[in-house]
Amino acid sequence: MNTFTTPFAQLELIRQPEQNHEPLQAFDAADEYLLNHLHQQGLVADDRVLLLNDGFGALACSLAGKARVVSSGDSHLGHLALQKNLARNGLPADAVAFVPASQRAEGPFDWVLIRVPKTLALLEEQLIRLHDQLAPGARVVAGAMIKHLPRAAGELMETYIGPLQASLAVKKARLLFATPEQKAAPRSPYPSRYRLEQPPLELLNHANLFCREGLDIGTRAFLAHLPRQLGELRVADLGCGNGVLGIVYALGNSQAQLTLVDESYMAVQSAAANWRAALGERPVQIRADDGLASQPADSLDLVLCNPPFHQQQAVGDFLAWRMFQQAHAALVQGGELWIVGNRHLGYHVKLKRLFRGVEQVAATPKFVILKARK
């Protein structure tokens, strides 16, 4: 838990998912810079403020009750953090409206504060959606730590909003100010699509998906070695992305009951569209969630997973380890977790701490496919 102090509030904030001895803060200097600028410019209670990609709710909680605040982002974990941080600081749950990135936030907005996301395609889609959503005289300001602020972010703001001005650096953070101007309605390049040859599938991918333009090489390696058990198995695709692992498995096992889970709203949106295209009205559960946190214990026979090794800009295996723990809890005795991972990550060592049997199913020069039995 960290204390975040700005002219608007003093808050105690946590990240999601929580971990003991959390090494990272739930905010950074770019959040502070954005709020200081907003305070200097003046904010009135009637202003409508749109927050984009407010990681763990630092901006939203600071402004709750100070204006009409809408927060929009693609992270279910970020949404959970917002809810918990509002409650932790005695703020009403309805003080901030949340809109998943799979939907469009409806304006008009007087202020738009943007935390520049890691995936610039997400930023582009968000800027495109601002068309006709800005009030007269609206101000659009983006903030980021300089090391995470590519030139292309400013170019996108200039393309879709208007002339750009950059601030001086403060505490290694920078702000970008875009002056809205009249522009023709833009045409979004998202979602994108690519084709899979075997099995023959066309996969739709919304803006924030990993490897949006083509199948990533880890998943490609995994598809060649998916388990081939048949029957009425209960199967989860954990961290499903566009749903390709679960969909391909389901195509090979007509009796399997599938659950597709991801913390990205755009991933879940993509997976749902791809499932319908490939499997029609076949029953399935597809949801945005904190991994398998809400999955009942002993309710799955098989979990498929290509785990992430980063959360926003932070790199590490914390999320993967947590997913392994969740899978272990959700699997029946004798159930299996199958994963693909980079060789150098050494997932087999961690899996042996949880599962009674861990085998290497296959390997490429870069990846290993592992099977862990509960």
List the SSEs and their pairings:
Elements (H helix, E strand, L loop, with lengths): L1 E4 L4 E4 L15 H13 L6 E5 L5 H6 L4 E6 L2 H13 L7 E5 L8 E7 L4 H10 L4 E12 L5 H10 L3 E3 L6 E6 L13 E5 L4 E5 L11 H7 L10 E5 L5 H9 L4 E6 L2 H15 L5 E4 L11 E6 L4 E2 L2 E2 L2 H13 E12 L4 H6 L4 E7 L3 E7 L1
Helix pairs in contact: 4-5, 7-8
Give me a quick take on this structure:
Residues 201-371 form the Methyltransferase small domain. It contains 10 helices and 20 strands.
Folded structure, characterized:
- The chain is of the alpha/beta class.
- It has 2 domains: 2-178, Vaccinia Virus protein VP39 (Rossmann fold); 192-373, Vaccinia Virus protein VP39 (Rossmann fold, 3-Layer(aba) Sandwich), CATH 3.40.50.150.
- The protein contains 10 helices and 20 strands.
- It has helices at 29-41, 58-63, 76-88, 120-129, 151-160, 217-223, 244-252, 265-279, 318-330, 347-352, and strands at 2-5, 10-13, 48-52, 68-73, 96-100, 109-115, 134-145, 164-166, 173-178, 192-196, 201-205, 234-238, 257-262, 285-288, 300-305, 310-311, 314-315, 331-342, 357-363, 367-373.
- The strands form 5 sheets. The protein has a 7-stranded mixed β-sheet, sandwiched between helices. It has a 7-stranded mixed β-sheet with strand order 14-13-12-15-18-20-19. A two-stranded antiparallel ribbon has the order 1-2.
- Helix 7 (244-252) links the parallel strand 12 (234-238) and strand 13.
- The longest helix has 15 residues, at 265-279.
- The chain is globular, with a radius of gyration of 22 Å.
- InterPro entries: DNA_methylase_N6_adenine_CS, RLMG, RlmG_N, RsmC/RlmG, SAM-dependent_MTases_sf, Small_mtfrase_dom.
